[in-house]
Design goal:
The protein is an alpha+beta fold and 349 residues long. The protein has two domains: 2-213, Hypothetical Protein Pfu-838710-001, CATH 2.40.320.10; 219-333, Nucleoside Triphosphate Pyrophosphohydrolase. 26% of the residues lie in helices and 37% in strands. The protein has helices at residues 14-22, 50-53, 93-96, 102-108, 175-186, 195-216, 250-261, 306-311, 321-333, and strands spanning 2-11, 35-45, 56-63, 68-74, 80-87, 117-133, 139-153, 156-167, 219-227, 230-236, 239-241, 244-246, 267-274, 282-289, 302-305. It has an eight-stranded antiparallel barrel with strand order 1-5-4-3-2-6-7-8. Strands 9, 10, 11, 12, 13, 14 and 15 form a seven-stranded mixed β-sheet that branches. Strand 6 and strand 7 form a beta hairpin.
Length: 349
């Protein structure tokens, strides 16, 4: 266990963080050039946030060298913290909580580890500097961590930047003096909110934004035209794709049917709808059977047997996001069955 004193400051963007890490250290401290590293932090808590309510955080850090460190921090304020830390071999964070390390034992005295779940994950790009002090012999007194943090949710991401100043040994200057120097020189003030709670607030914001984007997203219709056990594709880049176009509803699907086959005649059924993702619009998947068409208009169609089309899903030949999503919907709904000719189903040019 280590009792430590530290504070964190919000930094106004990547440029400000870069300038800060290259600036002279505060309080008369000396330091060498910053050292870069990368890690991921996974924070765990119970569904009712029991640890947070008690000012406790549980974190598994995974370094770029695959080193895993379990950390339990007691005391949610920026003044004095108790830190229990140990390297752990377990790949699953929850398995690490069942082991015999000191932080795991401490945690079991607070909560049943079986109740803990990953709550959020942070990607951190860090630059570290050691601040040395002393007259005759200069020794490390403080560690300065300049962190660019990224949080992701629902295909969206946000970044924020922070400076953490942590005392690592006794001796001047005082932590208060270092904080005052940073405020005077760079306008930085200590943060009260723990980092994982700041990230959790961003996750909530991203969740609301993702929901709004899904609601406001454009909708496209994708057409699965079936004739005699074959599915119609159009040339797409260097492969094939199902016909799709912007729009919504049966009228849009029928318009697309007429555009690609030369006839709007056919039995249409809605196979399913999908929310928008980062790669594509919201989709309506329509299946067309008993279609009729014009030979000239339909000349660009490429007909593949159902089994062949299924076998090529995800290959360079069939990889358009709209096509992959539509075929997945059709497979789950069993609207595309085994290849076979229906008596009333015939593509008549």
């Amino acid at each position: 266990m280590a009792a430590e004193a530290q504070f964190r400051c919000d930094v106004a963007g990547p440029e400000a963080l870069r300038a800060l890490r290259d600036a002279p250290l505060p309080g008369g401290l000396r330091g060498g050039p910053p050292v870069q590293s990368f890690h991921r932090d996974i924070y765990l808590d119970t569904p009712d946030r029991s640890l947070f309510r008690r000012g406790v955080s549980c974190r598994v850090r995974i370094g770029a060298d695959d080193r895993r460190t379990l950390t339990v921090i007691l005391g949610g304020t920026a003044a004095a913290l108790e830190r229990f830390e140990a390297d752990v071999p377990e790949l699953d964070p929850r398995q690490a909580l069942e082991a015999g390390s000191e932080p795991a034992r401490r945690l079991r005295g607070l909560v049943d580890p079986a109740l803990l779940r990953p709550r959020l994950e942070l990607e951190v790009e860090r630059w570290s500097r050691a601040g040395t002090g002393g007259f005759l012999v200069r020794r490390p007194r403080f560690a300065f961590f300049y962190d660019a943090c990224t949080v992701r949710h629902g295909g969206l991401s946000r970044t924020f930047e922070e400076l953490t100043v942590r005392r690592v040994a006794d001796g001047g200057p005082s932590l208060l003096r270092v904080a005052g120097s940073l405020e005077r020189s760079h306008g930085l003030r200590p943060l009260v909110l723990p980092r994982h709670e700041r990230a959790a607030q961003l996750v909530e914001s991203l969740s609301a934004e993702a929901a709004a984007r899904r609601f406001q997203a454009e909708t496209s219709v994708v057409l699965i035209a079936i004739d005699e056990g074959n599915v119609a594709f159009l040339p797409h880049e260097e492969g094939k794709a199902l016909p799709f176009a912007r729009g919504s509803g049966e009228e849009a699907a029928r318009h697309l049917l007429g555009r690609v086959t030369g006839s709007r005649v056919g039995a249409l059924s809605l196979a399913g709808s999908l929310h928008a993702t980062e790669e594509r619009d919201a989709l309506e998947v329509w299946v067309a059977r008993r279609i009729r068409g014009d030979g000239d208009t339909a000349a660009n169609l490429i007909w593949l047997p159902l089994a062949d089309a299924a076998a090529k899903i995800g290959t360079p030949e069939i990889r358009a996001p709209e096509t992959l999503a539509a075929l997945a919907v059709a497979a789950r709904s069993s609207l595309i069955g085994a290849p076979g000719r229906e008596p009333a189903e015939r593509f008549a040019p």
